Amino acid sequence: MPSSVRVKTLRIDDLDVAGDEQQTIFDVAVEHAIPIPTLCHLDGLGAVGACRMCLVEVTSANQTRLQPACATPIEEGMQIVTNSPRLQEYRRMILELLFAEGNHVCAVCVSNGHCELQGLAQSLGMTHVRFPYHYPQRSVDASHRRFVVDHNRCILCTRCVRVCAEIEGAHTWDVMGASSQTQVITDLNQPWAEAETCTGCGKCIHVCPTGALFEKGYSVAEMHKRRQFLPYLRAMREREP
Amino acid sequence: MNPEELHQLAEQHAHARTQIPHRIRVCAGSSCMGLHSDQLVNAIQRELKQQGLEKTCPVSGVGCMGLCSAGPLVAIDPDGILYQHVSEADVSAIVASVGNEPLEQLRCPTDIPFFTRQKRVVLEHCGQIDPERIEDALAVGGYTALLTALTEMTPAEVITHVMRSGLRGRGGAGYPTGLKWTTVAKARNPRKFVVCNGDEGDPGAFMDRGVMEGDPHRVIEAMAIAGYAVGASEGYFFVRGEYTTSVKRLRKAIMQAERNGLLGANIFGTPFSFTLEVRLGAGAFVSGEETALIASIEGRRGTPTPRPPYPAEQGLWGCPTLINNVATLASIPPIINHGSEWYASMGTANSKGTHVFALTGKVVNTGLIEVPLGTTLREVIFEIGGGIPNGHSFKAVQMGGPSGGCIPAEHLDTPLGYEALQRIGAMMGSGGILVLDDTSSMVEVARFFMEFCMTESCGKCVPCRVGTVQMHHLLTRISTGTATAHDLALLESLCDLVQHTSLCGLGRSAPNPVLSTLRYFRNEYEASLTSTPSNELIPLTARPPAPPTQGPNGKGA
Amino acid sequence: MTIAPMAQPTEPTSAPSPTPVSRKPRLATIWLDGCSGCHMSFLDQDELLITLAARADLVYSPIVDTKAFPENVDITLVEGAIGNAEDLAKILHIRRNTRLLVSLGDCAVTGNVSAMRNSFGVIPILERVYHEPALLHPATPQTDLPALRERVCPLHEVVHVDLFVPGCPPNAATIAYCLDALLEGRMPDLSQHTRFGK
To answer: Is the N end or the C end of chain C the one with fewer CB atoms within 10 Å?
Structure first.
């Protein structure tokens, strides 16, 4: 840790705030109870800025740009708008694209009622999808003794990939393919049960924002995910000398 | 090698060249190679042997001569007599004509604007020298700029030189090269890298390929100069895997340079050391994006990451990294040799120097050209390019590949320059110029590029991964006459979304071909619309869905 | 030019009024490619149905006897997605005769369970249902059934929809709240009442 922390002051939505230079816009916003929607970001995991839900309008040096709050370090004098009509519209469209891309059938999903994608659709007022649905043919891997991955519900946030590599240290999960053929895989695209690196810790299950990863034995709307372990683990590790 | 040795070698090889009365050059650029020019070299070799001329008239394969549409090309020195569309049947006649009257029926005129209107700086030695022989490169002054930089200039002076020249990034963005170099030079880190971006992937673009295949030593020399200027002693060539000839010639050239002490420890007896390695791209277009390129060299999945941090601050393995395009680097040695004023004297106020373009499409002369910036599109297409063939008329020119846009006839007098092109909704890009005639449908052109972006999206961020699929779908509906005004409006709002919210340049520029064709050819879109929404469903993606038990293999398609 | 943003909760402002002042509003409901759960929910309004009957005429519904969809309907609640040729013909007819079309429930709004067959295609689905099980006479029915569409789609892919009421099914209170607002000439804000899958 640096001996001296440099503090930067900035403005988020009419609120003058300060943060240390290591913090991101998202960190500072959270500290000041300013809500910014996220999907791929999760406190305790490295930021990838992939879902674009947390885009905010950043004005710095007379230039306004859209930046992912989760992956953008704060700078002195930044002016940030977190919830303009334009941003709201972009976020709704991104949600629409996600719903159109996968096979998301909330009514029959284990995570119904506890799903971040579903929750954002409700809170951001996305009442329907204006784009045609892709209806991809995707697989379900239920080979693992305790866990299931249902690619139909995967939004490719890569939280599972990151928690497995960064926190568990197993790196069982990774991403394969590109464009609309992108998917998460276990080991070298082996059935999960045959993925030798998997420790069976279940962290991936609980960071997954949707019902793509779940435990066996749960039916519709029964899969509650517990994420409290993550910031706790992170904090404990940071305390180690 | 010390400086004297370089001069000696250069003189020796230059002298050796003058001792031979005739020389046959056969274009071994990719286009002519595709027409089996390598077999032509062998056939000429055999014929020369038969006629006992192999000592007095050597034959060699050289880099791209430029006029690809007339290939395979063969040139006879010292007069530079050029023959076009040469086949093996012509070989004996060509060999017999050496030193005699040229064969008029095969002759390709060299006084046409295609040749006379060009200004070859980057391509100066392309098509002149055998790219697989360092002797040829040395004979025409190769590595003298490196010598000058190392022995007569400080790193800061080199950078100032580059800055003064006004050179801007030839990869497309046009960022001032000198400024980029300064940023890396100023970064405080004991370890820095120089990377040459040879992951050229735009459809219809082959400028970098031409340079890497035709004059690899030029780029190696430039990388060493860049390394010296910014304080890096390691460099990487990142070349797309499909460019097998480029890779082969670069590797050979690096080996030759190492053997001659032009790479490695204490170059020219100075404290400066520099090593180079070639890394291959694995077929993903997006790997040309700087942050994805870094990931790929590091051995990770080639996907972009948010900037900041910029590669100049934190690049390869977290170290400051200078990433320059092939043509940018190849412009450096002449700048050192002839001076920044000389370079800055070419071009326009904000776009200096020359630029290599790949001229393709519905134009008489296709191939690789180099012109001073500020030349107008009309000159490029109608003088150098020789106009539109088969009695058709010009409709538009697509510049900048999938990130670029279409320019209609009314803007043909726009001088080529970064800002000038941006103002009319296109971009310089890496230098692909695709000419379209009156038979081309602009919606189809936009759809073609959108399909490219759709399949080349890395899949990381949502707007690009899904938005391109939806835009492609809407363009398909429009081109098949099943879209309504509502669909067009939806397309435009998607363009806005993808342009402003995508993670990297690929996504952010993916809507450009749509936006620019909408700007100039909106009538073509509107003419295809129907008032009754069709209930016919068009599959969203052109490709069949992957079987459920098996995932996709590899990136892109 | 940009398209109109997604309809936002417009609770305070008035919508294009579904109810002409001069007469009692005409209400219809229809059940397309769905499970009838939304209609169960509709019936679950219990005693509120009596209030509703006082405020509007139910001119067409699976629970009334009318055979043909009438003209000049003010509000039509549509349950279910568009799954076959008949659904399509019906919804086009309904749209022409309805002032305010409401997609009621997830099947109408998203395709939902009805659309789960889309990933597989019509033929494999028919094979699976009519041939794979050990049936006495395995055969795809050829008569008396409307042709399945290649893909099931939500209503708004084929007609203009004025209000989206997600939910599987939307509960009775949501439907009552929604009808109450519409009959008063307002567009209801449903974000606090229902969501996909509820």
So the answer is: N
